[in-house]
Amino acid sequence: MKVPIIRLGKVLLVSIQVDLTDAAALQFQEDLINRISETEALGVAIDITSLDVVDSYMARVINDTASMARLLGAEVVISGVQPFVALALVEMGRELINVDCVFNLEQALKKLEVSIAARGDRGGNRDTYEW
Amino acid sequence: MSVLHLSIRNESDISEAVRQSRAMAGRLGFSTTSAYYIATAASELAANLWIHAGGGMITLQRHGARGMELMTVDNGPGIADIDKALEEGFSTANGLGCGLPGVKRLMDELDIASYPGVRTEIKARKWL
Ligand SMILES: Nc1ncnc2c1ncn2[C@@H]1O[C@H](COP(=O)(O)OP(=O)(O)O)[C@@H](O)[C@H]1O
Ligand SMILES: [Mg+2]
User: Fold this and answer.
1) Closest approach of chain A CAs to the CA of B85, in angstroms?
2) What is the CATH number of domain A5-118?
3) Contacting residues for B111 by C-beta, under 8 A, at least 6 apart
4) Could you report the per-residue pLDDT of B58-67, keeping only the tens digit for each?
5) In angstroms, what is the span from residue B8 Cα to ligand 2's centroid?
6) Cβ proximity of A114 and A100 under 8 Å
7) Please, are residues A56 and A64 in contact by the beta-carbon 8 Å criterion?
8) For A48-77, what is the mean pLDDT?
9) What sign does the dihedral A65-A89-A101-A83 (CA atoms) show?
10) pLDDT tens for residues B9-57?
């Protein structure tokens, strides 16, 4: 099952709809890395509204993906962590999801916009990108 | 139905165990939060069967009048040092190593018996 990646100006939107198998997770990470470098995206919003139960494996996939995106210079925000998912993750211990989280995709885009603007550096050079 | 045996042979069987355990927890009267805890624990245990034991069986069942039990049985390599396996961050498969410690916190009781190379049996229970 492929995870669709949508481009919106300088930001990429991804919505993880189902638990990813090992192979699908690797494929998704590879696709996202390619898209980030192709589009020179400055931000990535990963939405997990549809994920019902997040175990340590999926938490790791999300974290690893976020780290990769950051290495390529993109800001990352997770949106849509369901309240019961958040409770279970906290109960499991450790900071299982180590990425900024917001409630919904709209807030994710706002947050990315702010952090990209705050960097000034690269955002300013990319005046060909529009929201 | 208050006993369900699910065989974990591939990755998609893990999601089935998650779905079924949450549904059963709901039927047994657990709160939504507890049902999510149980389902998350089932996900960790079933994933361990798949990753560490090459497959196995997970049984979901009512336990006594006010409890639910997740039990896994496998004939994989077993767990040589159970205390170590329960340590935060310990993993022999380059994982996060927070599955078993997580199950311990999500559930009320956790029993692990392992005869390496023969049989490993893990029981995790939660009370209403
Ligand atoms: N069913 C099993 N059979 C063999 N070893 C297991 C089993 N379940 C857990 N283990 C061992 O316990 C360790 C810790 O498990 P866990 O906390 O889930 O971390 P992880 O799965 O990330 O390695 C595993 O790395 C593995 O060595
Ligand atoms: Mg595990």
Assistant:
1) 15
2) 3.30.750.24
3) B122, B123, B124
4) 999 999 999 9
5) 14
6) no
7) no
8) 93
9) positive
10) 998 899 999 999 999 999 999 999 999 999 999 999 999 999 999 999 9
- The strand pairing partners of B63, in sequence order, are B67
Q: Token pair of B114, please?
A: 């392992």
- Least Cα distance to A130 among A114, A118, A113 occurs for A113
Q: Which atom of ligand 1 is nearest to the CA of A57?
A: 22
* Alpha carbon distance B7, B60 (integer Å): 11
Tell me, letter by letter, the H, E, C secondary structure of A2-48. CCCEEEECCEEEEECCCCCCHHHHHHHHHHHHHHHHHHCCCEEEEEC
**What CA–CA distance (Å, rounded) separates A8 from B8?**
40
Rounded to the nearest angstrom, the minimum Cα separation between A31 and chain B is 21
Among partner residues A22, A53, A94, which is closest to B98 by beta-carbon distance? A94
Domain spans in chain A, listed from the N-terminal domain onward: 5-118
| Sheet strands side by side (includes B67-74) | B3-8, B56-63, B67-74, B119-127, B109-115
- Spatial CB neighbours of A110, under 8 Å, sequence gap ≥ 6: none
Are the beta carbons of B55 and B74 closer than 8 angstroms?
Answer: yes
DSSP string across A47-80: E-TT-----HHHHHHHHHHHHHHHHTT-EEEEE-
Vertex A59 angle, CA A96 and B61, to 5°: 95
Model pTM? 0.91
**Residue A84 one-letter amino acid:** F
The Cα A127–Cα A120 span in angstroms is 12
For A10, A13, A49, A72, B81, the CA distances from A116, given in Å and listed in that order, are: 9, 15, 24, 14, 48
Placement of tokens 């990108």 in the chain: A129
